[in-house]
Amino acid sequence: MLKYEVSELFREYEKIIKTSIRKSNEITFTKEDTKPWESKLGGCPYLENIEDYPLGKNNKPMIFLAQINLADLVELKNMPENGLLQFYIHNDECYGYEGPCKVKYIEKYITDVNQLVCKNPYEEDYKEFLPFDKEGKMNFQLREMPISCSCEKFNELFKGISFNEEQKEKIWHEFDGSGSRFGGYPYFIQSEPAYCDEYNILLLQLDVEDECGIMFGDTGNCNFFIKEEDLKNRDFSNVAYDWQCC
Length: 246
Fold this sequence. Notes:
Elements (H helix, E strand, L loop, with lengths): L13 H5 L3 E9 L9 E2 L21 E7 L14 E6 L12 E5 L16 H4 L9 E10 L6 H6 L7 H10 L6 E3 L17 E6 L14 E6 L1 H5 L7 E5 L2
């Protein structure tokens, strides 16, 4: 059983810190081909028919970013235990910043490759706009994490507290939200979007990494958020998407 350990430097604030703990499934990547139903970055999404591939507001095929097989995840509150979540963004050179995203929940899927589309029919249409170099398989590891210091609620949590100089130097290490993950807390490179009070659950964060060459803009990352009530209702039709860079 995981248990978050507060470092000695911040031990005096242990009770406060532990009120913020969330569980996260940290993601690492293996550069390899994947099966249609596996958790993946890029490649071919699970498709029973080409017609199932979503189109954007410009009537172009959307950019397929990632797919999560929910059976790979553990101990995430209100999350479905089975099925697939697919993440698509608007097809443009700005990683979909100006257009709506789409998160598609597939509750039941088959594993007979003879009945599935096994090659992305539209990848060549948007390949030059991908924020990564290679497709890859996702691997997950459960982690307990405290609130990220890039979140606005971090200041609320420690309101009235003055950290000493050593704590100030180490604060980004202790409350680091960087890295790719499903669940937990985000890392905002610039600032937290105003909608995060309402869209308060982090679904997916994709951050800079070397194996598959993920990078949004100049050392940037992306986040997908959902309202807690929508997650409870298995409603992924209204997800917020954002990416930021230096």
